[in-house]
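Review form for a predicted model. The reviewer records the input and the model, then writes brief findings.
Reviewer: anonymous (R2)
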Amino acid sequence: RPDLSEDEFYAADLIGLKAITSAGQALGRVTSLDDYGAGPLLEIALDAGGVPLIVPFTKQVVPVIDMDGSQITVDPPPGYLDPPKQAGDTP
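Model under review:
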């Protein structure tokens, strides 16, 4: 493989990395990196199960990629980690 700069990654190398928050909370593992035209999206299978977490793959949301430590740090936008609202919930 050719040498990559510090901010370049092969998508395949990100798959399987552990995802944690900046506070150290374990989230899950990276399952895919997709780009449907509006920018790359990182999908994380949550340890708690349920619907995967999908976040923009930007420096602001994913500030740290530690290939040696096999993990990424994710700072999702406010509300991303909140449980889904149920019918009848008040706003």
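Findings: The two ends are 51 Å apart (CA to CA).
Further findings: The mean pLDDT is 88.
Recommendation: see findings above.
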